[in-house]
Amino acid sequence: MTKHQKRLSVPKSWPVERKTDVFTVKAGAGPHGEAGVPLVILLRDVLGYVDSTKEARYALSEDAILVNGQPINDERRPIGMFDILAFPAREEYYRVFPDEGGRLSLTEIDEDAAGSRLGKIAGKQQVPGGETQLTLHDGTNVVVDADNDYSGNDSVVVDNDDKSVVAHFPYEEGALVTAVSGNHGGKIGDVESIDVTPGSGSNTVTVSTDDGGFETIEEYVVVIDENFTGDDESSGEASGDTAGTEGDD
Predict the structure, then answer these.
(1) Same domain for 218 and 126
(2) Which of 29, 71, 90, 203 has a CB 3.0–4.6 Å from the CB of 63, allowing a cystine?
(3) Do 24 and 91 lie in a common domain?
(4) Cα-based distances in Å from 84 to 23, 67, 70
(5) Range of the domain at 228
């Protein structure tokens, strides 16, 4: 099976230039589904830390790069929304955050913030032992006490070491959210209203921002707090670098 992906057909969230070359690296198996960006693309095309896949493999073999607190040895490992990239030797830490149009970018954070990551609750079910299992947007499962008030579309902050929930942000009117996809991807504001659509259609959300506001479907928004924006204020758009120089696949 080929390890290459045509640039023109990559997901819109990938931070790559589409017309500079025909192919780029194909994402391997892992979290985030088709939207996950191969780690080597962030190392090479965004950060410029390596010039080739070979150099990326060497860096990974030295356990020089951590994703969500764990060393990674696969340069094609998919990286997606809210993942944490750490370079301990450089003392550099980044959070993957949606930029304008939903394109993934890297927001620099401090070491303390790199110890946990945000996740949107995509599912909730009971497991043997009377506990509850939360399934997050990237497929991660987190076990919590049965006596909890977590609901679908809420967000939680998960410790990278022990996988415990250290913060909980309910999905409700007044919540601070960011749009992660669609025409308003990257915009941040407060939930003004949640309109439930009868039947199987998606519920819609009206979000107010300093420059007006927007409406989107609830699948496209994630509850955050100001510590996850990379900005001092909750209004505006997420900051971070996007695509940089291109290199050989």
Answers:
(1) no
(2) 71
(3) yes
(4) 26, 6, 10
(5) 176-237
